[in-house]
Amino acid sequence: MKKIEFWLHRFVFVYGLIMLSTFFMCLLFNPTSELPVVTFFGRCILLTLVSMLTLLIYTSGEELSNRAWWARTFLHAILLEAVLLPLAHNWGFWYNTLDGLIYGTFILAAKVMWHLIDFGQSFYIAAALNEQIRKRKLEEIQKEGTNNG
């Protein structure tokens, strides 16, 4: 159940990033555009699912070293661009080379934002886990002191 909750949380987060990126791109570069709402939301959901599938690049049987993580992060950025740009172009999210460059920049900006927020959440979780470990060790030390005394 925790894994499902974890991936649902990530799905909602990525979906939000895609929605915000698309909103700001339209607001800044094509404020008069009219998108069919149901089709637009459906395509954003599909873009989100495709984005989530690209996270498989981080799958590993063992813990990733810093170097391996950075290499996979670089490859993931390339993979996102290679998959999302043609799909978004096919759906009319961007039309010409300049639009494509802008859309690609938004994809990279969303990836950076993802990593910053993910880092913040991981940092918070790590701090909570470290606190639990400290408490447990302190309890063990107190327990040993009581048993020896």
Describe the structure.
- The chain is mainly alpha-helical.
- It has 4 helices and no strands.
- The protein has helices spanning 2-29, 37-54, 66-90, 97-148.
- Helix 1 packs across helix 2 and helix 2 packs antiparallel against helix 3.
- The chain is elongated, with a radius of gyration of 21 Å.
- This is DUF3021 family protein.
- The chain crosses the membrane at residues 12-31, 37-57, 69-89, 101-127.
* Uncertain residue ranges: none
Outline type: elongated
Separation, N- and C-terminal Cα atoms: 44 Å
Oligomer: single chain
Portion in helices:
over 70%
Rg estimate, integer Å: 21 Å
Total strand segments: 0
Number of domains: 1
Main beta sheet strand tally, sense and closure: none
**Helix and strand composition category:** mainly alpha
- Series of secondary-structure elements, N-terminal to C-terminal: HHHH
Count of individual helical segments: 4
User: Percent of residues in beta strands?
Assistant: under 5%
Mean pLDDT: 82
Keywords: Membrane, Transmembrane, Transmembrane helix
Protein name: DUF3021 family protein
Transmembrane segments: 12-31, 37-57, 69-89, 101-127
At a glance:
The chain has 149 residues and is mostly helical.
SSE layout:
Elements: H1 2-29, H2 37-54, H3 66-90, H4 97-148
List keywords for this structure.
149 residues, mainly alpha, 83% helix, 0% strand, transmembrane, membrane, DUF3021 family protein, transmembrane helix
